[in-house]
Design a protein that fits this description.
149 residues; five-stranded mixed sheet; 6 helices; alpha+beta
Length: 149
C-alpha cells in the first residue's frame, strides 16, 4: 500500500470502508452445520483431556488420514487404535500452540502410520491448528490440512 494512502486511511474511520457493506448475503455455512454434516468432527471431549480449553474439531480429511483406524488396518498394517491416533494429533497440536501463543494459526508436524502403509512405518504430515470465532463469536479450534482452510 502506498504510504500516502496508508496515512489517509489512518486519519479516517476505517470501519466505514468495507467492501461488503451493501452486499446481500447469498449463503452462510455455519460451524454447527459442518459438525452436523460430518465435514468437521467434534473431538472436544478428548481435547479437554489433553489440555484444550475451547471446543476443538478436526476436518473430515484429517480424521480420515490421521485418526481413522479399523480392525482391517490392524490385520493389514500394524496394531493401532483410533483413540491413540486422536490423542497423538491433539498432543502435537497443543504443544505447537503452546510454542506460539500469540498466533491464531499454527503449523505442526505429525508422524502417523498411513492406513495404506505396507510396512507400518510412520510418515510425517503437516497439519494446521486454527483458532477463530465460532458461530456465536466464541473461540473455537479447527485442525486440518492447509488446503482445508
Amino acid at each position: 500500500m502506498h504510504p500516502s494512502l496508508w496515512q489517509w486511511l489512518l486519519q479516517h474511520d476505517l470501519e466505514r470502508f468495507t467492501m461488503f457493506d451493501d452486499a446481500d448475503l447469498i449463503h452462510c455455512y455455519t460451524r454447527a452445520e459442518a459438525l452436523e454434516d460430518g465435514s468437521l468432527i467434534d473431538v472436544s471431549e478428548t481435547a479437554t483431556e489433553v489440555g484444550f480449553r475451547v471446543p476443538v474439531a478436526l476436518t473430515q480429511s484429517v480424521w480420515i488420514d490421521c485418526v481413522a483406524w479399523a480392525q482391517e488396518d490392524n490385520d493389514r498394517v500394524i496394531y493401532q487404535d483410533q483413540s491413540g491416533r486422536l490423542w497423538d494429533v491433539l498432543w502435537m497440536a497443543i504443544n505447537a500452540a503452546r510454542r506460539k501463543t500469540e498466533a491464531s494459526r499454527v503449523d505442526f508436524m505429525l508422524m502417523r502410520v498411513p492406513r495404506h502403509s505396507r510396512g507400518g512405518e510412520p510418515v510425517p504430515v503437516k497439519l494446521v491448528l486454527d483458532i477463530s470465532p465460532g458461530d456465536q463469536g466464541e473461540a473455537v479450534i479447527t485442525i486440518g490440512f492447509a488446503e482445508d482452510f
